[in-house]
Amino acid sequence: MTTISESIPQSNVNGRVSWATVKKVLSYGILFLLALTFIYPFLLAIATSFKTLPEINQNPVSLIPQVVTLEGYQRLLTFNVPRWTLNSALVAVSITLGNLLFASLGGYALARIRFPGSKAVFLGILGTMMIPGIVLLIPMFIVLKALGFVDTYAGLIMPKLITAFSIFLMKQFFESVPRELEEAARIDGASPLQIFFRVVLPTAKPALVALIIFSFQGAWNDFMHPLIVITVNQQLFTLPLGLALLRGGMGQNLQWNSLMAGSMLTTLPMAIVFFVFQRYFIEGISYSGIKG
Amino acid sequence: MTVATGIRGEDRQNAVAGWLFMTPTILIFSVFVIIPIIAAVYFSMTDWNGISPPAEATFIGLDNYKTILTQPGIRQTDFFTALKNTTYFALGVVPMQTIISLLLAVVVNQSLLRFKSFFRTTYYFPSITSSVAISLMFLFFYQKSGLVNQILSTLTFGAWEPIAWMADPRGLIHIALSWFGLTIQTAPDFLTQTSLFGVPLWSWISGPSVALTGIMIMNTWTTIGTMMIIFLAALQDIPNFVYEAAQIDGASAWSQFRRITLPMLRPTMFFVVTLGLIGTYQVFDQIYVMSSGGPAKTTLTIAYLVYRNGFNNSQMGLGAAIAILLFIIIFALTMIQRRITGSEAAV
Amino acid sequence: MNKRLLTLWVLLLVGILIAACGGGGSTTPEPTAAPEMTEAATAVEEATTEPVATEPAGEASGDVIQLQLMGWASSDAENTRLQEMIDNFNSANSDVQAQLLLVPDYDTKLQTSLAGGAPPDVFYIDSFKLPDFVAANAIAPIGDELENVDDFYPNLRDAFTLDGTLYCPPKDFSTLALEYNKDMFDAAGLDYPTADWTWDDLRNAAEALTDSDNGVYGMVLSADMARWIAFLYQAGGTVTNADSTSMTLDSPEAKEAMDFYVGLVQDGYAAQPADLDSGWPGEAFGKQKAAMAMEGNWIIPFLQDQFPDVNFDVVELPAGPGGKATMSFTVCYGVPANAAHHDASVRLVNFLTGSEGMKAWTDLGLAMPTRASLRDTWLEKFPNLEPFLNGAEYSHPWQFQPGFQDVLDTVNSGLQEAFTGLTTTDQVLQNAQEVGTEVLNR
Q1: Chain A interface, mutation test: which of B30, B32, B56, B326, most A Cβ atoms within 10 Å?
Q2: pLDDT of C6 above 60
Q3: In chain A, what are the domain boundaries?
């Protein structure tokens, strides 16, 4: 490999090759550097979860603990973590399934089916995203209370079964899908529901994967909604809610190691979900390749 | 059942199918989203404190809106300070995150790229890493002797004066102006003495403060991954044959990107920019965790002001009015950008 | 064909809605019912072996009154102690069973419950928030129903008194004192601070201890009204007049206090936490980048846990031109207005704040007793905390008028700008005076 300055006087063919190599090495270098900055806080969180409190203060950003301690994880044992995890999983999976079905239906209708009022419905749904959720907390609680949903799984799940974000995502996605396939099916006399389930959904894999990832993540990390749903029955605490107790409400004596140990509990399952599903982005390529 | 003519029959089928497909969404939304929103609109016209049951609040018409928009005082000043800060925030973050994430998505979508899964996964990591861990790390990095200052110092051969980022209320534009000798002491009177909506002109042109810039960088960094995934999913769905045709015509990579990729991504672009506008104009979490609106109210954002009024200062009615104003602002901006990105026809 | 698919779709939709609703048991509200355990929850319940002491009993238990005490989580030791005390209360009372609910994001949660018409029976109230709760008619005044009220320090009663009515009893309190680093004083050859220090002594020591080339300052000060206000009172100033009808931040005393506080930073003898690579003053003190800090007793467990090597001690705050003064920060047990079980709730409050309860609660040496009668026995056990406890005699409560958050924000923001030279102390006080006047006239 040669440096840029050396490559310039060389012959045309040679110069092009080595310039390409330099470019390649440079781009990979940049990509890896970026990757490092993006994963660093996660590695730091792992390292911090094994550090002692005095060391965290002395050496906050080092990735290798001088003394490895489990005190952060031991503190977690005093909490009902298994129960919180189960709750979170149950809630997140239900919400993901709901969004998967309802958002693809709604998104498809808004993108493709010309029905009266579709524009107004879409702008209405979009508009609901534009009001800061913090003012809706108390009205939401009142609604939940009227329905008897306070302190129930239904209260945790039902309001989130479909989100404006999901429907917006799917609508915009379906708009970028070429119409040809559906038109062909329509000419063959298929109904909208048939077209949707047999023709459209199978092509929507990449978007559905994105939807799974986002829905699961949103539900898994949600804090505010469970906070207002659960008042008395703390058995229903989800992971983010329970782990927030690690912080305490007042005072600055934060136990960073157990905080980070707790954050591992929320991050790792999410990372697994992402690892599993991001593979389908690659499969998506081959599908659309065959299709094309 | 009557036999409909061809076109009308199709219209009808479409109407039935469309509304049928929307039914679950509309049901759930009416109960859990629309009712609370209607309540919030009503609250914005009351003097509700957010502590006693809302039925006890007095209806005061548009007084809250008048207080915020026309009545000089701390509540007006705070709202327009927050509007200023939030707008600088959006102006910085939305373009940055959109461009970088599109770039990354195109790169990790290259069929020739190696370690594709590795890059995709790591770029997505900030989205799933605990936000507390991320805030903690950035707070360390932004310290006076932290990494950011060290890097800047190295890059400038020691000319860089270390600053405590998160405690620095100076605006970026103010700093730039000071290089030309223009400070609050030397600025002409019309800048420092004239106020618009309770905020002096001089403050309007401050630019984002150093502290706010720090949060902007962090926010961009954490959202890139999500935006990248959205672009990636959309890129996957552009059929290969479109590119193959262009390649046969001998189009360069750049012209393929401009003439095929970008137009095909238009709905996604609208999505990402709209999400960006909504996300930035509602920025709350990072402010709540990292700065609580300080230093000197330069990271006070509209959504944080809503929280502040509703839950710290028992003026939930006023907070709701601010929230409705925020809704109007975001909605207007979305409509404008819909025009600009040309998504109007599609929407 | 079409119809079959349609039927299928409707069935699917209904199925999902039922499945989701099924989780909720009944959808009809039952006002007094304990939360229903859902099928799924019961299944999970059986799966986890963890015993749950505080599981709410069902309606079947007859006339037993269920109480909920809502608070925020503090240290693990304190959380455990409070749970033990609740357990003791429950075994001593067969007709009342209390449940401790420690919740994250306390303000949001509490307000949602109150405004939603489902208030907890007893809950924490910070003295700063009390005026807002009283203005909202959200809490019942239970001062007359408390055990031995006169035993509470008068300053702490004042913190929960509005217009002559005592609303709730202080559960514990903290005061500000001066923490100093003994090693750094020794290195500078200075005598340790004493309780009779004046502002001049403080300033001179801060100057002598400062070594800014090495990033070490005599003191760490934050742009925080909750710290500056101690100097305001020491200067003989006040925030408002006695009946809280007008602001008094335009007084010469306020100016003197502001000049002194900001001057320490402007002259380079004190620095803000951020300039010392720290998030708050305690951290800067722990990192030994400042020789003195002005914090409450919460700094003690923090330093013990996170900076065990720091050799420090505590002394009362110096006196200013107007004499001695410090701030007390305190929280009470409030009972909501129109409470469903008022008498039982008051019984719980009395159990927790009576002599016995107060002794049990403060026995950890973390929170300080609000009852003067416990002073001597407590100090025997925790003599090193005496400077904090002494503050109870001359402290001022952290309590103003409804809506004072705006004044607090204005002063904090102004201090920050004054520290960095972006504004003058006169301007800060003028702004605070104006905003305060606006708030008082609302």
Answers
A1: B32
A2: no
A3: 4-69, 76-291
Both structure tokens of B258: 């401009």
Question: Could you tell me if A90 lies within 8 Å of chain C, comparing CB atoms?
Answer: yes
Asked if the structure places residue B25 within a domain, the reply is no
Highest mean pLDDT range out of A46-50, B228-232, C63-67, C431-435?
A: C431-435
What is the per-residue pLDDT for B2?
42
Closest alpha carbon to C348 in C79, C92, C73, C153: C92
Pairwise CB contact (< 8 Å): C114 & B313: no
Token pair 């039902």 is at which residue?
A: A158
Tell me which residue range forms the domain holding B239: 78-171+207-340
Domain-embedded: residue B192: no
Cβ <8 Å between A110 and B275: no
Q: Which of B122, B138, B261, B286 to mutate to test the interface with A (most CBs of A within 10 A)?
A: B122
Is the CB of residue A272 less than 8 Å away from at least one CB of chain C? Answer: no
> Which pLDDT score, from 0 to 100, does residue C31 have?
36
Q: How close is the nearest chain C Cα to the Cα of A148, in Å?
A: 4
- Model-level pTM? 0.89
Q: Which residues of chain B register pLDDT less than 70?
A: 1-8, 342-347
Q: Return averaged pLDDT per consecutive 10 residues of chain A, 292 residues in all.
A: 39 59 87 88 88 86 89 88 93 95 93 88 93 93 94 95 94 81 82 83 84 92 92 90 75 79 87 82 44 31
Q: Which domains does chain C have, with CATH numbers?
A: 65-174+329-397 (3.40.190.10), 176-326+402-440 (3.40.190.10)
CB contact under 8 A, B137 and A284: no
pLDDT band at C34, cuts 50/70/90? very low
A76-291 CATH fold: MetI-like fold (1.10.3720)
Which residues is C271 bridged to in the sheet? C220
Amino acid residing at C160: F
Q: Distance between the two ends of chain B, CA-based, in angstroms?
A: 33
Determine contact, residues C324/C394, Cβ cutoff 8 Å.
Answer: yes
d(CA B130, CA A44): 11
Chain Cα centroid distance, residue A109:
24
Q: What is the CA radius of gyration of chain A?
A: 25
Q: Which of C130, C278, C413, C439 to mutate to test the interface with B (most CBs of B within 10 A)?
A: C413
**Which residues on chain A are in Cβ contact (under 8 Å) with C309?**
54
B163 within a domain of the structure (yes/no): yes
What is the share, in percent, of chain C residues with pLDDT greater than 90? 79
Task: Decide the pairing of beta strands C290-296 and C217-220.
Answer: parallel
Domain count, chain B: 1
Instruction: Answer whether B28 sits within 8 Å of A203, measured CB to CB.
Output: no
Per the CB < 8 Å rule, is C422 touching B74? no
Any idea what the CATH number is for the domain that residue B234 is in?
1.10.3720.10
Q: What is the pLDDT of residue C95?
A: 94
SS3 call for A35: helix
Instruction: Return the pLDDT at B252.
Output: 84
pLDDT value of residue A93:
95
Write down which chains contact chain B via at least 3 CB pairs under 8 A: A, C
Axis-axis angle for helices C225-234, C252-266 (nearest 10):
120
pLDDT number for residue C184: 96
In a domain, B46, yes or no: no
Measured between alpha carbons, how far is B171 from B187 in angstroms, rounded to an integer?
15
pLDDT for residue A248:
65
Contact check, Cβ <8 Å, B49/C136: yes
